[in-house]
Amino acid sequence: MIEARGLTKRYGDKLAVDHLSFTVKPGQVTGFLGPNGAGKSTTMRLILGLDAPTDGSVTVNGRPFAAADHPMREVGALLDAKAIHGGRSAYHHLLCLAQTNDLPARRVGEVLELVGLTEVTRKRSKGFSLGMGQRLGIAAALLGDPRVLMFDEPVNGLDPEGILWIRNLMKALAAEGRTVFVSSHLMSEMEHTADHLLVIGRGRLIADCTVAEFIEQNSEQQVKVRTPDAGRLAELVTADGGRVSTDAADATTLRISRLPLERIGDLAFENRVRLHELTPIQASLEEAFMELTKEAVEYHAAVPAAQRPSEQVEA
Amino acid sequence: MTTLTAVGLPPAKGRSGFRGALRSEWTKIRSVRSTIYTLLATALVTIGISTLFAWGQSGHTGREDLATFDPVRDAMFGIVFGQLVIVVIGAMTLSSEYSTGMIRTSLTSMPRRGVVYGAKLLVFTLVALITGLFCSFTSFFIGQSFFTSVHVHDFRGPTRETVAVVDLSTSLDKPHVLQAVVGGGLYLAVSALLAFGFAALLRHTAGAITAAIAALFVTFIMVQFLPHDWAVKVDKWVPFFAGGQLWGIRKLGGEDIPMFSAWTGFAVFAGYAAVAIIAGAVLFRKRDA
């Protein structure tokens, strides 16, 4: 359980985290979403006490992290897989961490086996690939068999096998009743892993809900309609308050929003417009996220107005 | 993944603290090659230059230099250069945690920063002391083996030939000799601790090494250019002169320039290191990692 109350961090005149209050519950994977620079990493650093909050407080299992009797048994964190001394072997890296919490040395071998690094135990970590480094970081996080796990962008740069492995690991850890808190700027990734979502933009909490609620609340339900009489149906729908976009490549297909699917069907029936297809389109989490954070994105790419994709789609 | 909970961790008892941190820091310092290399380099430079210097002294000591000959300091002359190498380990012990990012992992496993800092400081102090004492004692004994027969020359005479061969060697049971040889080791260790303190303040390897060398060596060079009436006031406070009084049996520095006594001087020297280390500790605890 992680509880933040009014958590605030200011670097100079930049407000990185702005009065964040949230609770991360055990037994589920909580995704921490936000565009780059939204304050995800800073929030995680505040939870671990690496940075001191300007205001507010955060506790882990009811106490500030630094007050834990055995910190590694409370929280295992992977913030940056490269935050290790490359000249040290995997074994010694984990051993020096285990010793700080009076964990037995044999535990090092156990976690190395768990992440599949047994063969490179004595190798210096500077020769590790990105994926191996990530696994070593996860081994370190698991050393203390902690109740809370935090991962900052854990799938960055991993191959598909590694991504699948981390996904399954996070789900398994949550299924064991642990608190799993994972950040990402990839919405599609969270769609596969997270049960609950915390979304932040510019340091502020934008959403705190389940994945399903998030999509439902933040995306426009669309209906795909295929009809030989597309022009007539578009007129009818628009007159009824609906919004129509057409696909340039296929004149028989319409995408309709702002009208329920049933109403579209009734309109077609009442006006004798023949339908070949009537399909609800579920917006992906990615689209919902873009929709939600477009106001809060820190760094907009400069896109010439004529090329904005949204303007091409809309009729 | 069911193995996650199957693995056995003994139930937690007590509270993680200084003892575990000490073992951790010992593992850290012995498990990177740079420690071994820099320790070897310190020994090589200190003992090597001491040996060369003692060998030279035994072959060509001027008659007029006999009065100021210091069989302990002249046997450990390499310390002047060894201090410039041992500061590298002193700085890197802490600064490498920042340059690699390891500090964030370290403080995530043990967020009580005072414990981490204290354990690192204690382990490093022991390593530096053992290294320093090994260097000073080895240099001393090698030096004495040369000083049993020192060729004294009359450089002002017409022939410059050896006028006498004398035994200028000393031993640990003579007055102040043991204290001075131990002092040589202490001087090296405290030099390294000064660099440790700078590393805590600057969190940067090159910066900490530069600062330490400036404090230990550059100040010593610069005061050579001071006018006499300034030197009389300033010289004794220069780290090299303050700390250097301990590791010889004669006064270090200009003849008519007042210096601290051996232990007072060393206390001043250690005081400089202490200020850097304590200021470093305050910042280490307070700053965002």
UniProtKB/TrEMBL annotation, chain A:
InterPro entries: AAA+_ATPase (IPR003593), ABC_transporter-like_ATP-bd (IPR003439), P-loop_NTPase (IPR027417)
Domain (ABC transporter) ranges: 2-227
Keyword flag Phosphoprotein: no
Organism of derivation: Catenulispora subtropica
PANTHER family documented for this protein: ABC TRANSPORTER, ATP-BINDING PROTEIN
Taxon lineage: Bacteria, Bacillati, Actinomycetota, Actinomycetes, Catenulisporales
Protein's recorded name: ABC transporter ATP-binding protein
GO molecular function, one term: ATP binding
Membrane-crossing residue ranges in chain numbering: none
Keywords linked to the UniProt accession: ATP-binding, Nucleotide-binding, Transport
Entry similarity comment: Belongs to the ABC transporter superfamily.
From TrEMBL, chain B:
Xref: Pfam families: ABC2_membrane_4
Protein's UniProt keywords contain Repeat: no
UniProt keyword annotation of Membrane present: yes
Taxonomy, superkingdom: Bacteria
Keywords: Membrane, Transmembrane, Transmembrane helix
PANTHER family: INTEGRAL MEMBRANE PROTEIN-RELATED, MEMBRANE PROTEIN
Name of the featured protein: ABC transporter permease subunit
Residues passing through the membrane, by range: 36-55, 75-94, 115-142, 177-201, 208-227, 260-284
Signal peptide location: none
